[in-house]
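Data availability (excerpt). All sequences and predicted token strings are deposited with the supplementary files. A representative entry, Medium-chain specific acyl-CoA dehydrogenase, mitochondrial, is shown inline so that the format can be inspected without opening the archive.
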Amino acid sequence: MPLLYTHTPYLAPHFTGNPVHHRIDRNKQDLQLGSLIENADDQSNAMARIMKSMKSLVSLRRSFFSVDRSFASSKSTDSSTGVCFDLTPEQMEVQQLARQFSRSEILPAAARHDKTGEYPWEIIKKAHSLGLMNHHIAEEFGGSDIGSFESAMIIEELGYGCTGITAAIDCNNLGEIPVVLAGNKEQKKKYLGRMIEEPLMCAYCVTEPGAGSDVSNIKTKAEKKGDHYVLNGQKMWITNGGHANWYFVLARTNPDPKAPSHKSLTGFIVDRHTPGLTPGRKEINMGQRASDTRGITFEDVLVPKENVLIAEGAGFKIAMGAFDRTRPTVQI
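Structure token line:
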């Protein structure tokens, strides 16, 4: 049989031809996780303990993908040989934590939030204390830095409770990813570090009235003046737009209309309370009323040059990288 690829890190035992099955006491685990959630306010980060036993994910994945294919093909005639797609015990624990949180915290509040449109701050604070947010921030800055598979697994479980509340939680990842991918150490420490220290929100400001995922039509402009850039333009459908502490903003820095978009766009980090930045009215989204979606207007907003990600003209690649990295959870 052909070599199969999987995110599951426990691979070595399966090359022996003896698939491994992990057993777990669900009742006992539910009680433990339930206690953890009830005492969420006292937990600095529940995921940190779970993630300690997942540190070998990267090295094991690398060793798996470097295995000589001839070795795998030599086993292909043995029907008992293969790669097990079972979740590891650590992944199961992460999944169960998210599932318990969804059932005990999100689901009971879902109808009320969908009716009133109230932003789910209390739920967000508990999710933050348990480490169920900000999945991709590196350990260096206090995060858990879990993979896309584990992140998607968490969002799948939270989404069972309410898609609107989950959208608010998950869109932090979308806003953070440009800084994760392209930020320098100072930018990461300043903007990602605060997301771990406090239950703060951020937003991804790319979509405009005439430009969605097709970022080539972006009209928002940024003109350099001295040590700052002056932003002018309008964004729309920005999730967490009214509650963000800071924004990733994609703007056009090359005024030449004939210049190719992949060299004309620049990514900026913009603080929420910068003068000239104005969130619009909250949109009413069917099935996601708890999610805060708004337009954002930039009128002569001054952004320091230190808040440029990488350099002028790098914004297109940063935005595409963010789309790629976050597609698994967005699709869920």
